[in-house]
Every structure is written in C-alpha cells, then in structure tokens.
Amino acid sequence: MELKDINNYLFENKDIFNEVVRTNECRKWSKWVTRNETPFPCVCPVRNEDCIFAETYYKLSQVASLANFEKDCEESVLDFQIIKDDDTLLKDWIEHFEDLYLKISSFKNTITITISPEPYEKLKINISFPTVVEDFKSIYSEAMGRFETK
To answer: What is the DSSP string of 115-146?
Structure first.
C-alpha cells in the first residue's frame, strides 16, 4: 500500500471512523481522537469489527504522517549529492539530519493487527514508502558507515 492509497483510505473512511469512535464500547479510540493519547494494546479475548477497523485506521494514520517528511528527505538527498566527497561537510550533514533519520526509521514497512488472540489471527498490511524516503535512509546509513570504519 502506498502513501497516496493510505491517504485516500483515511479520507474515505473518516466519517465511519468518527462514528466508531463515538459508539464503540472501547474508549481508547475516543481518547486518541480527543486527547491524542496513544492507544494501549488490545487485550480483549474477542475483538469486534469496529475495534479492528479503528486500530487499522489509527495505524494507517500514523504511517500517513510519513508524508510530512518527504520534502525534508528530498532536500537532504540533494544536499548529500553536493557534499558527499567532503568528510567534514558530510559529518555536519549526518548531524544535521540525525533527527530526521531517527523519525523516519521508526516507521515500519508492515503494519500488523491482531484479529483474534485464540486462535491467533492477524492482518498484515505492507507499506511502500516513497522512493525519496528509502533513498534518504539508504544514503544516511551509508554515510554513517563511512565513519564507523575509520
């Protein structure tokens, strides 16, 4: 699933999600919406469809925030092309983009949602990150590696 597909899904299902938040017996979703509280993991022995839908929506919305970093990744890749042969500038580049790398690295390519604890069933959604994000992660790791061996 690509970011544009995720954003379309979130947009198309926003009203359904808000209705689930309003009516679901599990209040963790309303706390996320109203107070931005991170939802705790589900421990229900049987998960209802609304709760599975809400968790899917929540996890996809987290991944959608990756789009906020695309421009920064693009700028970092362009900067890297200019300074890649100068070790002093490269060290500065690494330091400057460390926070971006840490934020981007926290995103996983697979979302897993438990549907049922017994028998254990799960839903997996594979995420395709934008090329510029993957390029940035690769270049940053490569740049770090240049200094780890020295």
So the answer is: EETTTTEEEEEE-B--HHHHHHHHHHHHHHHH
